[in-house]
C-alpha cells in the first residue's frame, strides 16, 4: 500500500516494454524510443492505442453480429451487435479524450487539460444509456410479438468468436490500464468482461430456442439491454464524481501524510486538501506543525524539500502552510489532552489541532480546530456546548471555545 517512491497516478515502468507479448510488441512499434519517452507522452500513447484497438475489434464484431442477427431474426444478437457498436463509439471518444488531454497548459487553462479524460468517459456513459434504452424498447416488442430465431453454425461461430475477442480485450485493457494507472482503461476492461457475460447469454438463448420450444430471445435481449443500462449509469457516476470534486484517494492521503509526518522537525500535519485536475494533475495543500522555537529559515528549507519530494515521488504539486506550535507550556498541554479526552467520549474519530489558549481576567479562550466525521454534520453547536459544559463543570475556571470544524476528508 505504501509505494514510497512511486507516483500513484503515473508510475509507468518502461522496462515492461521489453517483455514479450502482443501488447508490448505493438507498444514498441508505436513508441520507437520507449526508453527516452516522457511519462505524459507514454500515457497518451497507451490511451490512444487502446482506443484504436477497441475501434477495430468492436466494429468487426458489430458487423458480424448484425449480419447474423438479420439472417436469424434474433433481437438479442442484434442487441449485442449494437452493444459492440456502442463500444466502438466509446473507443472513439476515449481516443479523442486522450488526444485532447495531452494538450499542455495554456493561459486559459493553467492546470492543463487532463480532465478531458473524465469528460470522454461521461460522453461514453451517455451513449451507452441511450443505446440501452432503445434496445430495451425493441426487446419488449419481441417479447410481446415473438418470432422464431434461425440458429446456424455461422451464428454459433460468430458469437463464440466474439466471446474470445472480448476476453482478449479485457486482458489487453486491464494490462494497459494498470500500466498507466488509468481508471478509464480499467473501466473499459470491465466493460469487455461484461460483454463476455452478455454475449454468452445471447448464445445461450440461441441454443435454447434451437433445441426447445421456449422463445426466450426477447427476454435475453431485454436482459442485455438492462445490463447495458446498468453499466452506463454506473460509468456515469464514476466519471461525474471526480468532475464534481470527490475526495482524494485514501491511499494517496496516507502516502502524503505518512511522508510529511516522517520528515525532520515535523510534529504533526493536518488539513490536507487535494484538487484533482485529471490523471497526473493533482494539486494539494497541507498544514505542517513545527516547534515555534525552531529557526524559521531552517523550517522553510525543510518545507521546500518536502514539497519537491512530494512532487517527485507522488506526482502531487504540494503547498505547505507552516504552523508554529508552542511545546513548552504545561498548562496548554494539559488542556489539549483534556479537550481531546472529552471529545473522544462522544466519538473516537474526532481529533483537534491548532490548539491555542488566550487567558483573561474573567475567562480563558480555547481556540482550535476539530476534525470530525461527516455523519456529525449539523451537530457542531451541540458538540461545542457539550464540550464547554464538561470543561466548566470541572470547577477550574470559565472556558469559552472558539472552534473551526473540519470534515474528516481534510484530515
Automatic annotation (TrEMBL):
Segments forming domain Cation efflux protein transmembrane: 52-244
Question: Does the entry feature the keyword Transferase, yes or no?
Answer: no
The protein's location, in the record's own words, is: Membrane
Molecular function, one GO term:
monoatomic cation transmembrane transporter activity
Task: Provide the Cation efflux protein cytoplasmic domain boundaries.
Answer: 250-324
User: Which cellular component appears as one GO term in the record?
Assistant: membrane
List the InterPro entries: Cation_efflux, Cation_efflux_CTD, Cation_efflux_CTD_sf, Cation_efflux_TM, Cation_efflux_TMD_sf, CDF_Transporter
**Membrane spanning residue stretches:** 49-71, 118-136, 148-171, 214-233
Membrane topology of the entry: Multi-pass membrane protein
Pfam families named in the record: Cation_efflux, ZT_dimer
What keywords tag this UniProt record?
Membrane, Transmembrane, Transmembrane helix, Transport
Family to which the UniProt record says this protein belongs: Belongs to the cation diffusion facilitator (CDF) transporter (TC 2.A.4) family.
Q: Which PANTHER family match?
A: MANGANESE EFFLUX SYSTEM PROTEIN MNES, MITOCHONDRIAL METAL TRANSPORTER 1-RELATED
Can you name this protein? Cation diffusion facilitator family transporter
Amino acid at each position: 500500500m505504501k509505494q514510497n517512491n512511486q507516483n500513484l497516478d503515473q508510475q509507468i515502468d518502461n522496462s515492461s516494454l521489453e517483455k514479450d507479448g502482443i501488447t508490448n510488441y505493438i507498444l514498441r512499434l508505436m513508441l520507437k524510443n520507449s526508453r527516452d519517452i516522457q511519462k505524459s507522452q507514454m500515457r497518451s500513447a497507451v490511451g490512444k492505442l487502446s482506443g484504436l484497438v477497441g475501434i477495430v475489434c468492436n466494429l468487426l464484431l458489430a458487423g458480424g453480429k448484425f449480419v447474423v442477427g438479420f439472417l436469424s431474426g434474433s433481437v438479442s444478437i442484434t442487441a449485442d451487435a449494437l452493444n459492440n457498436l456502442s463500444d466502438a463509439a466509446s473507443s472513439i471518444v476515449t481516443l479523442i479524450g486522450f488526444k485532447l488531454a495531452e494538450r499542455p497548459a495554456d493561459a486559459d487553462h493553467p492546470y492543463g487539460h487532463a480532465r478531458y479524460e473524465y469528460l470522454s468517459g461521461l460522453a461514453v456513459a451517455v451513449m451507452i444509456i441511450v443505446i440501452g434504452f432503445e434496445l430495451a424498447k425493441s426487446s419488449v416488442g419481441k417479447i410481446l410479438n415473438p418470432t422464431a430465431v434461425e440458429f446456424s453454425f455461422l451464428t454459433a461461430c460468430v458469437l463464440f468468436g466474439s466471446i474470445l475477442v472480448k476476453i482478449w480485450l479485457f486482458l489487453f485493457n486491464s494490462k494497459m490500464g494498470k500500466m498507466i494507472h488509468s481508471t478509464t482503461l480499467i473501466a473499459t476492461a470491465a466493460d469487455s468482461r461484461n460483454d463476455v457475460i452478455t454475449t454468452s447469454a445471447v448464445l445461450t438463448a440461441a441454443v435454447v430456442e434451437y433445441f426447445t420450444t421456449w422463445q426466450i430471445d426477447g427476454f435475453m435481449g431485454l436482459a442485455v439491454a438492462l445490463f447495458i443500462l446498468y453499466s452506463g449509469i454506473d460509468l456515469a457516476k464514476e466519471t461525474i464524481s471526480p468532475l464534481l470534486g470527490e475526495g482524494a484517494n485514501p491511499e494517496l492521503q496516507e502516502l502524503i501524510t505518512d511522508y510529511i509526518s516522517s520528515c525532520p522537525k515535523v510534529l504533526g500535519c493536518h488539513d490536507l486538501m487535494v484538487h484533482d485536475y485529471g490523471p497526473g494533475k493533482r494539486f494539494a495543500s497541507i498544514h505542517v506543525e513545527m516547534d515555534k522555537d525552531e529557526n524559521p529559515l531552517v523550517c522553510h528549507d525543510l518545507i521546500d524539500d518536502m514539497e519537491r519530494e512530494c512532487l517527485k515521488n507522488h506526482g502531487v504539486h504540494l503547498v505547505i502552510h507552516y504552523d508554529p506550535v508552542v511545546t513548552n507550556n504545561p498548562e496548554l498541554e494539559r488542556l489539549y489532552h483534556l479537550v481531546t479526552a472529552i471529545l473522544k467520549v462522544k466519538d473516537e474519530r474526532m481529533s483537534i489541532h491548532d490548539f491555542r489558549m488566550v487567558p483573561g481576567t474573567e475567562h480563558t479562550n480555547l481556540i482550535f480546530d476539530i476534525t470530525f466525521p461527516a455523519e456529525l454534520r449539523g451537530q457542531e453547536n451541540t458538540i461545542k456546548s457539550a464540550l464547554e459544559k464538561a470543561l466548566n463543570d470541572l470547577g477550574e475556571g470559565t472556558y469559552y471555545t472558539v472552534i473551526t470544524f473540519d470534515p474528516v476528508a481534510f484530515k
